[in-house]
Design goal:
The complex is a heterodimer of chains A (278) and B (395). Chain A is α/β, with parallel strands linked by helices and 278 residues long. Chain A folds into 2 domains: 16-179, P-loop containing nucleotide triphosphate hydrolases (Rossmann fold), CATH 3.40.50.300; 185-271. Chain A has helices at 16-28, 42-53, 68-72, 77-86, 102-108, 127-137, 169-174, 185-195, 201-215, 226-238, 260-271; strands at residues 32-35, 56-61, 73-75, 98-100, 113-118, 139-141, 148-150, 156-161, 176-179. In chain A, strands 2-5-8-1-9 form a 5-stranded parallel sheet, with helices on both faces. Chain A has a two-stranded antiparallel sheet with strand order 3-4. In chain A, a hairpin with a 6-residue loop joins strand 6 and strand 7. Chain B is of the alpha/beta class. Chain B has 3 domains: 2-149, no CATH class; 175-193 and 231-389, Rossmann fold (3-Layer(aba) Sandwich), CATH 3.40.50; 194-229, no CATH class. Helix content of chain B is 51%, strand content 9%. Chain B has 18 helices and 9 strands. In chain B, the strands form 3 sheets. Chain B has a 5-stranded parallel sheet. Classes of the chains: A alpha/beta (278), B alpha/beta (395).
């Protein structure tokens, strides 16, 4: 079977590894599991992929209360009961009360869709397991009507995870995996430039230096990520700070480190006088 | 060579199996590796590695095995396909893997692979080679894997053999009483408790019918909270020296408990011989919470499972000045800590890997405090029953 290869888009830069993983997922028709720290562009990947393939994207943001069933369909019993009471519409037709979820919608669509199951690890531990079968077979049965929803065109499934929870092995085995690495300094400079186009080179250089050193401090629970860096630079500029250096009195440290233990770990690392490796 | 690679991957903790092998052969059949070594590396990585912690291990194994390799690609590919077609190797696959194999048209894969090889001939000398290696390693990997790691499905390869020989040295742990992980998982599955709590977002059908009937057909919707697991388990493991012979079975218990998805929360902490002021987060006993803090964090609804042989020098149990405690406050005797634990957690058990005949001395004292059960299938089942309902003590 032939398939369209993904090469990234103008706005989304890929690495050969990422392209390989995406193409494997496309060719083998497997879900693509993308992991990586927050702020590494996991969600954007699905958007870029949809754009590159010319398909429309269905976004399914997962929350702690999301159930696998919600992705397939929801049977609105309450609406039906109310309708039967107040005589609004034909309640004998259960199909009127079956509402397809993001995955169900993608299956039922006439053309191929990209489905983004965003932050899968936010949900209950059982969530990925509950989806296994449907993702494998790309079909499911609506229990209330006996109808079967079969994907006409297997959707491209992109799943993102922040690695907050361990995902089940059976689920992992079915996915093509890619880990998006944290941007290196060069890429980060470009990212910062997008948000702060008129930032002085000197300050950019110093903030990046401090930022990457800070990320290397041992014992941090939550290492600062891209968004924290961007916020921090915004604060520095607002306050008129023109130069920074990584020491105990790093200005507005709270914008980068948000946990008390991390602030302590940082103070300790500075106190020991052992500068973390740059 | 390739079998070595698989073993190395397994040894380095990269969980690869037939499923990965098959995906990889499909991917190669479709030419996803673009006939380069780099391409093969990337495809193999995307398909074999499932978590970022394994990336480094994969890289090292790959670098180690695929440096300067040159083999007859087609021959290796054939070998692999033969392996796949061999019913004997199929027997070792799991249900799930067999199903995947069934769906896969082997001849088609073979044909594609041959075509790919023919295409490359003379065009890219390394590409030629790498298809071969690429084709083989995953298959071979699949071949060794199912026997290698499938837990609870017969032979477990090298480690199993080691374990058996080790077991014979220790008189107390007979083969008829050891548990495999699957058995433990099944036993643990019985340990559950569900409650309805949280947001009321589930339709209570009987309740609705009842309420509607009561108001003479006037529709009245009743909602209720969905059933959720409410089971919190605290696992305390003894890593004292005398527990070394039992480490295998303890590991199995630990991994089964960790994999059990029906616990709302599971905390695993370690102690050495007896619990004193502090329990530890890792086996090397470097840091962990104080028991007083632990009791504050875990309310009495937690189920406590302590695992240990309860063998120690008597003073370790009775001395009030244990060398294992630091602060004044923590300086109670080991026995006092155990009493504190069972007092706090009404549902608690002690699992002892030693046979009952050995439950004397300190073990005899501890079993007066803790309901003690043997770490066998029967013992575990009884222990779980006790945790749920407060059953008979094993005496």
């Amino acid at each position: 079977m032939d398939f369209v290869r993904f090469r990234g888009t103008d706005a989304y830069l890929t690495s050969p590894e990422l392209e390989s993983a995406v193409n494997c997922a496309l060719a083998l028709e497997r879900p693509l599991l993308v992991r990586g720290e927050p702020g590494t562009g996991k969600t954007q990947l699905a958007e870029a992929l949809a754009r590159a393939l010319g398909l429309s994207l269905i976004h399914w943001p997962v929350k702690s209360t999301t159930k696998a069933q919600d992705g397939l369909y929801v049977y609105d019993t309450v609406q039906r009961l109310y309708d039967s009471r107040f005589g609004d519409g034909d309640v004998r037709d259960i199909r009127r009360y079956i509402k397809l979820g993001p995955l169900g919608e993608a299956f039922a669509a006439r053309d191929r869709r990209v489905v983004l199951i965003d932050e899968v690890d936010k949900a209950d531990l059982e969530f990925p397991n509950d989806l296994l079968h449907e993702l494998d077979r790309m079909r499911f049965r609506v229990a209330e009507t006996g109808d079967e929803v079969v994907a006409r065109e297997r959707p491209v499934v992109v799943i993102t995870s922040n690695a907050e929870k361990e995902l089940p092995d059976a689920f992992l085995r079915r996915c093509v995996f890619h880990y998006i690495e944290f941007p290196d300094r060069e890429l980060m400079a470009r990212i910062v430039r997008v948000h702060h186009p008129d930032l002085a080179d000197k300050l950019l250089d110093q903030t990046l230096g401090a930022f990457y050193q800070l990320r290397d401090v041992q014992g941090l629970r939550k290492r600062p990520s891209t968004s924290e860096l961007i916020d921090w630079i915004a604060v520095l500029r607002r306050a008129g700070v023109e130069s920074v250096e990584l020491d105990e009195s790093l200005p507005f440290l709270g914008a980068l480190l948000k946990r008390e233990q991390d602030l302590l770990a940082f103070a300790e690392a500075m106190h020991r006088g052992r500068r973390p490796r740059a | 060579m390739f079998v070595d690679f698989l073993y190395e991957l397994r040894e380095r903790g990269v969980k690869v199996g037939a499923q990965e092998a098959l995906s990889l052969s499909q991917a190669l059949g479709k030419g996803l590796h673009e006939t380069t070594l780099d391409g093969f590396y990337r495809v193999a990585r995307a398909l074999c590695v499932h978590r970022e912690e394994d990336l480094d291990a994969f890289d090292r194994a790959f670098a180690h095995h695929f440096r300067g390799v040159s083999d007859d690609a087609l021959k290796i590919a054939e070998e692999v396909l033969q392996w796949l077609a061999d019913p004997r190797s199929r027997r070792e696959l799991t249900e799930e893997e067999r199903e995947i194999l069934e769906r896969l048209d082997l001849e088609e894969v073979q044909r594609q692979m041959r075509e790919r090889l023919a295409e490359q001939d003379g065009r890219h000398d390394r590409g030629n080679r790498w298809v071969g290696t690429g084709g083989t390693s995953p298959h071979g990997r699949g071949g060794t894997h199912p026997t290698g790691i499938r837990v609870g499905e017969g032979g477990t390869g090298g480690r199993g053999a080691m374990a058996i020989s080790a077991r014979r040295r220790f008189r107390d742990l007979r083969s008829d009483v050891t548990l495999d992980t699957r058995q433990i998982e099944l036993a643990l599955r019985r340990l559950r408790a569900y409650v309805r709590e949280g947001a009321q977002d589930e339709l209570d059908l009987p309740g609705t019918i009842d309420a509607t009937a009561r108001s003479a057909g006037e529709l009245e919707i009743k909602l209720r909270a969905p059933r959720r697991s409410n089971l919190r388990v605290l696992l305390l493991l003894d890593v004292g020296g005398s527990m070394d012979p039992h480490s295998e079975v303890c590991e199995r218990l630990f991994s089964a408990a960790k994999r059990a998805t029906h616990f709302k929360e599971l905390r695993t902490l370690y102690f050495h011989n007896c619990v004193y002021g502090r329990v530890y987060e890792n086996g090397s006993l470097t840091r962990g919470p104080r028991v007083v803090d632990l009791l504050r964090e875990c309310d009495p609804s937690w189920k406590l499972i302590a695992v240990g042989d309860a063998l120690m020098a008597p003073w370790e149990l009775t001395a009030s000045n244990s060398p294992w405690s630091w602060t004044e406050e923590d300086r109670a005797s080991g026995l006092a800590w155990l009493v504190a634990l069972t007092g706090h957690f009404p549902r608690s058990v002690w699992l002892n890997p030693e046979p009952e005949a050995a439950w004397y001395g300190t073990a005899g004292i501890i079993r007066d405090v803790f309901p003690m059960f043997r770490l066998t299938l029967d013992g575990l089942t009884a222990a779980i029953q006790h945790l749920l309902r407060g059953g008979e003590r094993s005496r």
